[in-house]
Amino acid sequence: MNLSRLALVGGAISAFLVGTMLFTSDAQADTPPVVGTTQGTVGGGTGNASVFNIADLKTNGQNGPLIPGNYDDDPAPNADNHFVVVPNLDDAPLQWANKYIFINNPSGVLEVQKTIYATTEGSTNGTINGAIIWDDLAPASLIVTGADCLALLGADSPGPSVAHGLITTGQKTAAELQSIRNGCQQNTVGILVNPFPISKHLPPGVYRQCIILAQVGGATTSPVCEYFKILPITGFQTDVNVIDYGTLVQFVKSIWGGNFVLPGDVPAPTPGTIQGTGNTSPKLLVAFSRMTNDMGTAATGDDKYINSYFDVQINRQDPAGNIIATQHLDNILGGVPFGPDAHLTLGVSTGVPPFTPICLEPNENLKLDFSVTPQDVLYAGSYSGQVRLTVTNSGVPLPACRPTLGSGESANGDANGVYNNLPGDPVGQTYP
User: Domain containing 55: what range?
Assistant: First the structure.
């Protein structure tokens, strides 16, 4: 079995598979993040504890090391002084980031509460809190100061180090870091490091993270908030690499049916299944070439080709296994064979609409059924052609689908108590 996986970040990608299939993918840009609301100054003597900054850097796994030269995914270094990150396709592996919470007067802290929100759809400035995607409490014992604080920051020069990463990503200047080091030496500044998973189940967009301190004596601070941005990544995997219609008969529909299984434990021929592996909800398009008889010059005229009545159906199921939505495209015209430059154009089977009501959600298997109904008398021998699947976020001819949070919609997590930015099956999705 050949399992095909394709990915795209902010561009276009295509590939030929073994067999007769070509797949392409593209992704759309997203609104840049707005100016953050982090407040406060470094230091503060013996006053109340306060948060004066929040910053983020990518790590190699949970609590893992920083990645040299890969502190974030901003497409242009220092183009944005907010943290910018892309999930990994299929969460393989799950992408993690460290959040660095900078605190004045850490000795006055009992607990640190961090809450991350998806900003409400339609908000132009990103200041409206939407669904909670992460919420936790950290004890004050995890805040480092003094020599440990200095060791955590490391040197400004290329490391990797936290200091170098914050300067490289535009989240801190060398002067700001020096001021923080001075506070660390005086034990008036502390840093809390908090790991955070960034899954394909987080749609692209701007997210708001807010910190509240519980202080000695019972008081709590007002929320201090900062933004970070998740970029789109579009990809899919499918086990479709050969479609075998079996015996072809004039005016009789021959069906090659798929299932909802990916991959491995199904008998050949490989059934048709497709799954979105990114954090977008792309539309699926299908195009066919004509099928040609293999008899060569012995087969001539219209009967040598099957040019029309190609059909495809896409199917969605609910958690109980019931098919809850289908879309069927009938009488798709076959174009000329795609050829070696097929990745350069989608100019076959023109006029075929995309599957617009049914889009690929992250981690969801959809079933594909292919069929053909020959209209002409057929020659003896075999007929062969090509079919191409394309996923796209393009708004033409209809607006792109909008992804939803994938693994639980509740502020308290899903049924397993896992927050909805962690890997899991789609729950409570809505579709256009």
Answer: 50-231
